[in-house]
Amino acid sequence: MTETAWQRRTAPASTTELEHVDAWWRAANYLSIGQIYLQQNPLLREPLEAEHIKRRLLGHWGTTPGLNFVYGHLNRAIRDRAQRTLFVMGPGHGGPSGVACAWLEGTYTERFPDIGQDEQGMQRLFRQFSFPGGIPSHAAPETPGSINEGGELGYSLAHAYGAALDDPELLVACVIGDGEAETGPLAGSWHANKLLNPAADGVVLPILHLNGWKIANPTLLARIPEAELVALVRGYGHEPIVVSVGADDEDPMVSHARFAEALDDALDRIAQIKSDAAAGALEQRPAWPMIVLRSPKGWTCPDEVDGKAIEGTWRAHQVPLAEVRENDEHRRLLEEWLRSYRPEELFDERGAPRPNVLGAAPAGELRMSAAPVANGGELRRALALADFRADAQQVDPSERGAHSTGSTAVLGEWLASVLRDNPDTFRIFGPDETASNRLAPAVYEATDKQWNAETLPVDEHLAPTGRVIEVLSEHLCQGLLEGYLLTGRHGLFNTYEAFVHIVDSMFNQHAKWLESARKIEWRAPVASLNYLLSSHVWRQDHNGFSHQDPGFIDVALNKSADVVRVYLPFDANTLLSTADHCLRSTGYVNVIVAGKQPQPQWLTMEEAIEHCTRGLGILPWAGTETEDRPADAVLAAAGDVPTLEMLAAASLLREAIPELSLRVVNVVDLARLQQEHQHPHGLPDAEYDRIFTLDKPVIFAYHGYPWLIHRLTYKRAGHEQLHVHGFLERGTTTTPFDMVMLNELDRYTLAIDVIDRAGLAESHGAARRSFIDARDRAKAYTREHGADIPEVADWVWPGAASGS
């Protein structure tokens, strides 16, 4: 810990300091309103006219003055204490605030030199906001200092705690809107304070901003008795400091003094806790301070418009004056409102901020808009990754599939080395499923689960510091990981496939952030967000229909091809190769789907690396085609269980119809099925045609919903010959083979489909009938014995049995 970290205040904020904060606040408010309304006349050098105002008024004023108020006060404290601070703006729809504060600090001009700190730059700043070809109305990657978009509310506190992990000198000031506080993700995030280590991690200062209203309704936390609110946040493990500002007829300097005292109190308490933690003097988990700030909605806007109350009501949420181009009285009120901040005191003749505005602001990297952690790609260091080949499963090409093991357990051995070799830059997050997904026991031999709540003698692998974080909220796991990645670190989120849907929307928001960030030169790429989806649809036969859903793949592939990758490794070696690739990548969302149950191992490590590098390919050992006997049909698969069933079908056909020439194809990288112009991984048409043929039937066994494969390939030649088998939304508690039979993905159905599509139903009717009978026997056996028939359960690839 440096000498300047976690300093205490030696004296109350002076009048001069508070006057500087007030000037900052007024300037930021002026700039925020200008962004919403103005396209010309930024300094009001002439009376406001209709042509000075944008035709479309977009943005959110209601939360913005409170954000500017908090930001200005944090600036004073940062300057006073030399405290590294990241600002997380929960109400990210208050985007004008983030832009205004970054412009005042000079960071905006550093990032966008054409928007200078002068009158012309101010006009460009105003015009671009919510304007075609400009910037979004919410805080976004374009906003320096932002890691939280805030378009969809609820993620700020989880992002804040993720950012604080492994950064013991970082303060994360997180403003939580009272509307946001009503969301499920935010409610779960309050418990993250039981996960951080007071000595080894940074500190989150939640600032619950109660302005009383959402877009059209009051907020719950602003309408409950204060004693109930205080009891609630104390129950979450915080010691609240309640402060109200902006009361009617109150001198703003009184509000500033009151909040400055509250903020200094909170920071002094934090400094004491950090000092005690460093000295080993904490006897129990500390009650961290937080601030509950009450301020009027739309503070400082007109009290009343057209006889209706505006300030302090939901009517101030977005644009308080909506008809300023057409209505002279509204335009007069807007000009009066803007001039109430006394812009001539805030900006000099050039339009630059005057010294009094910047008097309490920090400089350099202490500026929150210039905080390096808010552009985490600049801090990211490549992981030290052990050679995954050391964990390879030995596969004898003459006995493929003879050995079975759980692929995720093998991955766990390698991940344990990643955890050991990257003790402060890599973490695994999961909703109580790291052990269930078989990454344990290996990862728990390398690290504990981080836990700072009570422990009991019966507990295992719980410790104040650990590289695995388990909490039964997928929202919190995802949010912590996002905050960790966006501030320059690496991680993996492992969860059950069916329940990753809980974070569908969070995934959407992060993917959009990554896509936007790619277009911003100064945003350095962050490490990819890596999902490991296990306990998947085909091996949740014991848990039943509720646990059987492979649809996250479809959700993922709806996002931009620039940022999303989906991989379906089908044995341990392909999983190791895929995971190594994903952990080395930056700027993507990687979705890896892999089963945890024992399964046959098919490829040598050298073959697996080559196959994964190609993304898909022919398995020559599984088919029967030769140069003299071109393929009559193609059996293709994507996913571990579909590959098993496809190989079993190929085996049945090889024995029953030896003259049938078969080609067997496996797909690991789903994007390879798309065309080149659709996805960077897309396979050229000529290569696709070479692999799948132009006119032969292709029977495709797919892990998920079958229509996705059709969607990815609908423009390919021969698409009418493609017949996909996958999950048909038929599930229950049953046996593994009955699950594939229910969904027509079983080996017998695949073999029958090949016979039918290849025109062999009449000439090989006996073989076809034998497969139908075998399927019926298998189904009847499950009903009688509650287990799969031995000829299926004990099946091995014929080469494994014969040694050929």
Automatic annotation (TrEMBL):
Q: Does the keyword Acetylation apply?
A: no
> Pfam families, from UniProt?
XFP, XFP_C, XFP_N
Query: What GO biological process terms does the UniProt entry carry, in alphabetical order?
Result: carbohydrate metabolic process
At the top level of its lineage, which domain of life is listed? Bacteria
Give residue ranges for domain Xylulose 5-phosphate/Fructose 6-phosphate phosphoketolase C-terminal. Answer: 596-797
Q: Does the keyword Transmembrane helix apply?
A: no
The molecular function terms of the Gene Ontology recorded here are: aldehyde-lyase activity; magnesium ion binding
Q: Which InterPro entries match?
A: Phosphoketolase, THDP-binding, Transketo_C/PFOR_II, Xul5P/Fru6P_PKetolase, Xul5P/Fru6P_PKetolase_C, Xul5P/Fru6P_PKetolase_CS, Xul5P/Fru6P_PKetolase_N, Xul5P/Fru6P_PKetolase_ThDP_BS
EC category name: lyase
Q: Where is the Xylulose 5-phosphate/Fructose 6-phosphate phosphoketolase N-terminal domain?
A: 14-378
The entry's keywords: Lyase, Thiamine pyrophosphate
Matching entries from PROSITE patterns are given as: PHOSPHOKETOLASE_1, PHOSPHOKETOLASE_2
Q: What cofactors does the UniProt entry give for this protein?
A: thiamine diphosphate
- What Enzyme Commission number(s) does the record list for this chain? 4.1.2.-
Q: Which HAMAP family match?
A: Phosphoketolase (MF_01403)
Q: Which family does it belong to?
A: Belongs to the XFP family.
Identification of the protein by name: Probable phosphoketolase
